[in-house]
Amino acid sequence: MRSLAGPPRSLRTRLVLIATVLATCAVLLCQTAGLTVLRSWLTDQVDDQLTGFQPPTRVYEDIADDGRLHTPEDHDILPSDYRVFFYGSDGRLMDASLGSSDDRGPRLPSRGKELNLRNGEPATVEAVDGSGSWRVVADSGPDRMRAVVALPLDTVDGATTKLLWISMLLGVIVAAGVALLGNAAVRLGLRPLSRVERTAQQITDGDLDLRVPDTDPATEVGRLGQALNTMLDRLRTALHRTAASERRMRRFMADAGHELRTPLTAIQGFAELLHDDPRMPAERRTEAHALIAANADRMSRLVDDLFLLAKLGHAPDPRREPVDLLSLAADSITSTAVRHPERTITLGPLLIGSADSSGQELDVVEAVGDADQLAQVVSNLLANACAHTPATARIHVRVGTIRTGPAAGGVDRPGRTGATPALEPGTAAAVIEVADTGPGLTPGDALHVFDRFYRAAPAAAAEPGSGLGLAIAAAIAEAHRGRMELDPLPAAGCTFRLLLPVHRGSPPMSPCMERAHR
Predict the structure, then answer these.
(1) Are 398 and 351 contacting, i.e. CB atoms less than 8 angstroms apart?
(2) Which of 146, 278, 293, 508 counts the highest number of beta carbons within 10 A?
(3) Residue 493, phi then psi, degrees to nearest 5
């Protein structure tokens, strides 16, 4: 069981207690040092008096004449605290002494050989009555006689005792003062920490929008506040990302369910129609079978796209191998031209700003990545351009290398949208552009064109798509640490741009391209 007299838990109480103990100890230490110095100084004064006094010569003469000490008359008694004791030539302590005639005096041995005193060296001995002490010094006389001069230390003991009581009283006063004033000072000093504590408690209670007010980097509490605010910002960002991810997941599931419901409903309806009407004419039966197959194919493609998106979001990094983007673009154009022979699709060098491509030649451009996935991106872009532009619109595919910037691409600017964060300005990147001269996209459509299941108003589409092609292209670009972006030109077409890190083995940019970037 825990003791009730345990250490204080409050930081404020511990600080006040530590300050009180330290201040009291400091005062007592100083008073003890002063007391020791004062007692030593007073004792030195007594020693000076003792060593400077010599017993009268005639006293030794009287003792030598008849062996007795002739005590002087009352008016001849020493008018001071001096006491002088004599040891005779036989070594015995004589009964009579010079000085006051009371019973007070030092406790001296009865035999001189037991007197452990060196001549001229003061020493302290106890009083006869047991109260106080005396300071004594020994002196040798004629005929092996010795004299002991003594002075009481009452003055020294009284002064040191009074100083000791004063020190104790002062220590108590200091302890009480430090406890009271220290408590107020600690409360005032810990006020910023108390505000941090209250803010943290409110955040714990659910108010996540609060911030710690004290962020002065010159103080410990300020640095703590900065650290807490950084932690709170990261926590809020993580919570917002989690909430946004959950919203996107719910919207994705709702959109996927809606997209799958349409072909499933059609398949179910035509299957029930065939089952309920066995005498259906062969022509209508063939039409129903064709519609069932078409909706099943549509649902299969939709499921394949969903599976690909899920795999791109959770699969490890794609294969990393050099990919010739120029050959990849040419192969994709060939495949698209077979499906859309009426479309005009050209392949040329990349244009920057108003640079003229006349006289320029296509160069081999290499990037690092998965050739199959990158080919799917270009195929999706060409399929979208063919599906959403009239047959008279031209489609231009351009390949080259750039250094990212507002004019070249790779970074954000007004009107440009991207599905992934912008690249660092000045980054060398390999680019495949798919531009068309169709009707273009409105600013509202351009903002959501990379969202899953988003469909802009079809201008010349033969059949509605799933709304996943550009989302897949953006996911593949992100998996390759690149960027998929759109530069819309209202009433003048769209330019979709895939940017990828340049492979080290790629040839450098042409001088014309370098001048365009400058």
Answers:
(1) yes
(2) 146
(3) 105, -175
Domain limits of the chain? 28-159, 220-308, 318-517
Pairing of strands 321-324, 146-152: unpaired
Which amino acid, one-letter code, is at 357?
A: S
CA–CA dist 420, 486 (Å, integer): 11
| 188-225 confidence digits (pLDDT tens) | 777 777 777 777 787 777 776 777 776 677 777 777 77
Work out the angle at residue 68's Cα, subtended by the Cα atoms of residues 65 and 71, and round it to the nearest 5 degrees: 110
Residues 6+ apart with CB under 8 A from 67: 88
Q: How many CB atoms lie within 10 A of CB 496?
A: 25
Cβ partners under 8 Å of residue 392, min gap 6 = none
Q: How far apart are CA 500 and CA 481, in angstroms?
A: 7
Tokens of 122: 């003061």
Rounded CA-CA distance 401/433 in Å is: 11
Phi, psi of 464 (to 5 degrees): -70, 140
User: For 279, how many CA atoms within 13 A lie in the half-sphere containing its CB?
Assistant: 0
What CA–CA distance (Å, rounded) separates 186 from 194? 11
- Kindly report the CATH class assigned to 318-517: alpha beta
Q: Which fold has domain 220-308?
A: Helix Hairpins (1.10.287)
DSSP 291-349: HHHHHHHHHHHHHHHHHHHHHHHHS-PPP-EEEEHHHHHHHHHHHHHHH-TTSEEEEEE
- CA 206 from centre of chain: 22
Which pLDDT tens digit goes with each residue over 92-115?
A: 777 767 776 666 778 888 787 778
For the beta carbon of residue 505, count every other beta carbon within 10 angstroms: 9
Whole-number Å distance between alpha carbons of 86 and 71 = 12
Q: Please tell me whether the overall predicted TM-score, pTM, comes out greater than 0.85 for this model.
A: no
Q: Which residues of 380-397 are buried (b: 16+ CB within 10 A; e: fewer)?
A: bbbbbbbbbbeeebebbb
169: three-class secondary structure by DSSP: helix
Q: Is the dihedral of CA 381, 382, 387, 390 positive or negative?
A: positive
